[in-house]
Design goal:
The chain is an alpha+beta fold. The chain is built from 11 helices and 14 strands. The strands form 5 sheets. The protein has a 4-stranded mixed sheet. A 3-stranded antiparallel sheet has the order 1-4-14, covered by helices on one side.
Length: 450
């Protein structure tokens, strides 16, 4: 049974759908617990970087959003603690200011989260998952599971920024498959129309909708993400010293911050090292490069004589099946991700070597489009034609504009519930702490296509 057929079946069988809702909520909460119990209370209340919230803020915010949308909006319940709503409103207080707020202490935040979750599971048991837009196919519950997983990724970023001994451990990904070194550097994606976005994915968020036709010229796309070894060649060729490769705003950032390499990299005695969740280790040349801003990705692409792919090009490469002329949910098809398809769900704390996961390849043979690293695209974060904000403007609409660049594909820190071929992420082009890398593209010469 495909994932889409499974969704339909679950929609027809309330019991199956409720089991899935309970499962994804539990998966998210287990991960939240791991991220907030592996350090002591001092670490939970500390702001490890002005770019991020204290971990205890994220914990209570997760619970507060769950209460707002499930207990109040869906269940019609009275507010449990209305006085804390403004404290955990992400739009009321910038991250840098959140340590100054009267935050719930760790034990109280955990107790609040546990109580909310217990009431939500009771609500789920007695609620029909149909009849309103929020309830259809369990959308509100799926939205909350995705929200928690997104904050879990945010908390994992905080763990990476945190100084001190390692608090998290995970096995490394396996070695690259035997054919990784024989892969072509790039793959031709034919031109023509394809369906971008979705109108059928039950838990898709508003910015992924509606499905619409996009017609693209043929282009070439890297078979794998740009690796650390690739990026080292850019560094060693003076990439951070040559303004001609840089967008002027990026060059200003390089000069202001005296950048010379990706975030968390240092050069000691001629050897490049990086800090990875409290462990300092040599940079691994075969892994996708990580912790680079959009400006760095764009500069590398220019240096390489290439460019970043547009968001539409990325999605066509990841979803379009030329044999059936339909758009898949994932590069490999419609089935949900497994460990054989992609590096997702914090199973590992790093990207897998370039060329990994051949079972997750697209019809064109492009690998690692899902998982490992978020991939910067050339595109601004803008609404699709016919966009409608749902269930609230602040999820997507307030961010539309040229200030934000789109990232696609997810990273090793993303859970499958919050990652699919249509999922859109966005951030400022200066951001380096996020788990972002990239791949490059180039226009196809018409003579090459014939």
């Amino acid at each position: 049974m495909t994932a889409q057929q499974s969704e339909t079946a679950e929609g027809a069988d309330p019991g199956l759908l409720k089991e899935r809702v309970a499962r994804v909520l539990d998966t998210a909460r287990t991960r939240t617990s791991t991220l907030t119990t592996c350090v002591d209370d001092h670490d939970l209340i500390t702001q490890h970087s002005p770019l991020m919230s204290p971990l205890v803020w994220d914990l209570a915010h997760i619970a507060n959003q769950e209460e707002l949308w499930l207990l109040r909006a869906v269940g019609g319940r009275e507010a449990m603690r209305p006085e804390i709503d403004p404290i955990y409103d992400a739009f009321e207080h910038p991250r840098a200011a959140r340590p100054t707020l009267p935050l719930l202490p760790p034990a109280e935040a955990r107790g609040y989260a546990d109580e909310v979750r217990g009431r939500v599971l009771d609500l789920l048991e007695g609620t029909a998952l149909h009849g309103t837009e929020l309830l259809t196919a369990g959308f509100a519950f799926g939205m909350i599971a995705q929200h928690e997983q997104q904050h879990d990724e945010t908390m994992l970023i905080t763990h990476q920024l945190r100084r001190g001994p390692a608090a998290l451990t995970a096995p490394p990904p396996g070695p690259a498959p035997a054919d990784a070194l024989r892969l072509p550097a790039e793959v031709l994606v034919p031109g023509g129309p394809f369906t971008m976005g979705t109108g059928t994915e039950p838990w898709a968020l508003d910015n992924e909708r509606p499905a619409h036709q996009v017609d693209l010229a043929p282009f070439y796309l890297d078979t794998t993400p740009v690796t650390c070894g690739d990026y080292l060649r850019f560094i060693e060729d003076g990439g951070y010293r040559e303004p001609r490769w840089w967008d002027p705003r990026g060059w200003a950032m390089v000069r202001e911050l005296t950048l010379a390499a990706p975030l968390f990299w240092t050069n000691e005695g001629g050897q490049w090292l990086r800090r990875c969740f409290g462990v300092v280790e040599p940079v691994r040349p075969d892994e996708p490069v990580l912790h680079v801003s959009w400006y760095e990705a764009d500069a590398y692409a220019r240096w390489a004589g290439r460019r970043l792919p547009t968001e539409a090009e990325w999605e066509k490469a990841a979803r379009h099946d030329p044999d059936t002329d339909r758009s898949r949910r994932y590069p490999w098809g419609d089935t949900d991700p497994t460990p054989a398809h992609a590096n997702l769900g914090q199973r590992h704390l790093r990207p897998a070597p370039a060329g990994s996961y051949p079972e997750g390849a697209s019809p064109h043979g492009i690998r690692q489009l899902i998982g490992d690293v978020w991939e910067w695209t050339a595109s601004d974060f803008l609404p699709y034609p016919g966009f409608r904000a749902f269930p609230y403007r602040e999820y997507s609409e307030v961010f539309f504009g040229p200030e934000y660049k789109v990232l696609r594909g997810g990273s090793f820190a993303v859970d499958p519930v919050a990652c699919r071929g249509t999922f859109r992420n966005w951030d400022y082009p200066i951001r380096r702490q996020i788990f972002a890398g990239f791949r490059t593209a180039r226009d196809a010469d018409p003579a090459e296509v014939l």
